[in-house]
Design a protein that fits this description.
Blueprint (H helix, E strand, L loop, with lengths): L5 H26 L6 H11 L5 H21 L3 H19 L12 H16 L6 H4 L9 H28 L10
Helix pairs in contact: 1-2, 1-3, 1-5, 2-3, 3-4, 4-5, 4-7
Amino acid sequence: MNCYDRRDLGLLLLRLGTGGVLAAHGAQKLFGWFGGGGIEGTGRAMESMGYAPGRASAMAAGLAEAGGGALLALGLATPAAGAAAAGAMAGAAAVHAPNGFFAQSGGYEYAVSLGLTAAGLAVTGPGRLSLDHALGHAVNRGWMVPAAFAAVAAGTAVVIGTRNRRLRRAAEGRQEPLFEE
């Protein structure tokens, strides 16, 4: 008989909550559910935030959030799921960083909270109340954690770096007024 402990229940709750929120955000981007813009609307928004091409950026963010979130909630391929979700949240945090930390001011607090929770789950593992456990951890091996984070970190660095260069180029030539009228 298998006896689950508090750790397993706690990890299940973290996975369901974080994964569910991420999956819902991804569904907004991909399908327009829950008041989202769908691929077209999100693509236009991504372009305005400096992520280009917008449609491809919306697809990548939506898949990382919806796919990573759903897999986290299920406790399946936890290293890859958590890393993908954390990467998507790093991209969101980059957009909100100019507004400071707190979400009430449009800051990056919320994105960082979701990203760190997803990353923590990827590192910790899903617990025994998970598909990874039921499948003998076939897609949740120790070596997969650093591999997933390395791949996602490299991709995220390129995407955010490209966005930042694009925004800097767009801002060149624009001068702030010296005096307010």
